[in-house]
Amino acid sequence: MKVVILAGGFGTRLAEETGSRPKPMIEIGGLPLLLHIMKIYSHYGHNDFIICLGYMGYYIKEYFSNYALHRADVTYDFATGDVNYFNNVAEPWRVSLVDTGLNTMTGGRLKRVRSLLGESSFMLTYGDGVSDVDINALVAAHRRHGRAATVTAVRPPGRFGSLEVGSDGVVQTFREKPSDEFGWINGGFFVLEPSVLELIDGDETEWERGPLEKLAAAGQLVAYRHDGFWQPVDTLREKRLLETHWARGKAPWRVW
After folding, report:
1. What is the pTM (predicted TM-score) of this model?
2. Rounded to 5, what percent of the chain is helix, strand, coil?
3. How far apart are alpha carbons 18 and 255 in whole angstroms?
4. pLDDT at 183
5. For a 10 Å CB count at each end of the chain, is N or C smaller?
């Protein structure tokens, strides 16, 4: 099953990092976030990727064009001109890098890669979030219900302590960073049928608005509830959180 990854946004909320590279190329443990996501899918046997590029797309193209150089050690023999790679990492991947426009919205980016998707079910996710979701269980759930779209529903990570305050100003209850305060939210990691592409008008379409709203109204959007780990990287704090998990050897999304 093909996997589409949206990797074209500006990442303005993480300007400390995205001034020099696209957000999916921010490194966690020395590895771009994009590769963390790809390795999650690859662990479950899904190795055909379509990466939707936009902001600084050339950065991602350069990385994959020189993948061996980025991931391996190398010996240059200047006398003979030979270049030999060793300790290299070989991935069973097929990667299509598609320029989907600088200002194109999320739905528009998906529409632009329509010709690469064929007529089979495919997967879609964002290039800035990781999870320990069981991809094959997600796919199996999509096939069982037989509808057009499945979204992985997750609990938003708790960021602040929650207070319940009485009329007299006295705090009645306090919960430190509750993760279930806002119920379920869109966590990405979609499984989709090709028919959903007909709901995308063009570059200006946001996947999260018109298409998903129409699918929900038609009863064609099903939630796959995931109570495990899920974390987007929208801020420097969230990047550091993932780095801390990785450094401690306790990265929940590292299923590979």
Report:
1. 0.90
2. 30, 25, 40
3. 27
4. 81
5. C
For residue 246, what are the contacts with CB-CB under 8 A and spacing of at least 6?
28, 29, 254
Question: Which residues are paired to 86 by β-bridges?
Answer: 73
The whole-angstrom separation of Cα 111 and Cα 26 is 26
Backbone phi, then psi, for 130, in 5-degree steps? -120, 160
Distance CA 148, CA 64 (A): 32
Contact assessment for residue 164 and residue 127, using Cβ atoms and an 8 Å cutoff: no
Extended strands (E) in the chain: 2-7, 27-28, 31-32, 48-53, 73-77, 82-86, 94-99, 122-126, 129-131, 149-154, 162-165, 171-175, 185-186, 190-192, 221-226, 230-232
pLDDT of residue 170: 56
Q: How far apart are CA 202 and CA 200, in angstroms?
A: 6
| pLDDT tens-place string over residues 152-171 | 999 887 655 555 666 666 55
For 7, list phi and psi in degrees, rounded to 5: -135, 30
